[in-house]
Amino acid sequence: MNTSLLMLWRYWDEIYQRCTRLTYIEKGKNIFRVVPLRYRGEPLRTSDEQIIQDGDFILKIHIHNYYFASLCRGVQDELRVALLLRRHILQSLPKLAAFLEAMEEREKIKGIVGTTMLHKGVVPLGFSISDVPMNWFFRYKRWYLRLMLRLVHPDGKRRLQTWKQDMPLKRVYMSKEMLLARYGQNRQQTTGDTL
Prior knowledge:
Blueprint: H1 3-20, E1 23-24, E2 32-38, E3 44-45, E4 51-52, E5 57-63, H2 65-72, H3 78-102, E6 109-116, E7 128-131, H4 136-152, H5 156-163, E8 170-175, H6 176-183
Parallel strand pairs: 5-6
Antiparallel strand pairs: 1-2, 2-5, 3-4, 6-8, 7-8
Helix pairs in contact: 3-6, 4-5
Protein name: YkoP-like domain-containing protein
Pfam family, one: YkoP
InterPro entries: YkoP-like_dom
């Protein structure tokens, strides 16, 4: 991605962040931005058998695309981009857990939920995955994320032509209990999350 395009994206990202009420977990260091809201959609069963239902409070998670694009600047290898994303998600999850633990409304929050095309490899991190209904909102979101992929991915144009209309947009989600057990301050130390 060239410098001028990245600069324009930075300005757009600042406007987008203000309009969507997204909160930085740790600006410039964490790949997530979040907004607490009520979940709207079909029931989601997490891997630890918790249920997130329509109307439950959740922490909606967004990958900070501009931040990730700036990290990927100059990276041409597809595998390196994927590994970079996974590493930053893994590094960002403990701070996300700490953010949730510090929230005044933490008792109300049922879990974290996001929508993404970058869902490969997230199950071992504790996430569950489900399809999204392709209504007008998710069609728009898919268009937007396809544009982001074209800009960020070293081979984005070819990847989009390969996937065409079958670009898989998915929900990724995790219960609050799972997030805190795996990544919270009192988590058990594990050795399975190496990259």
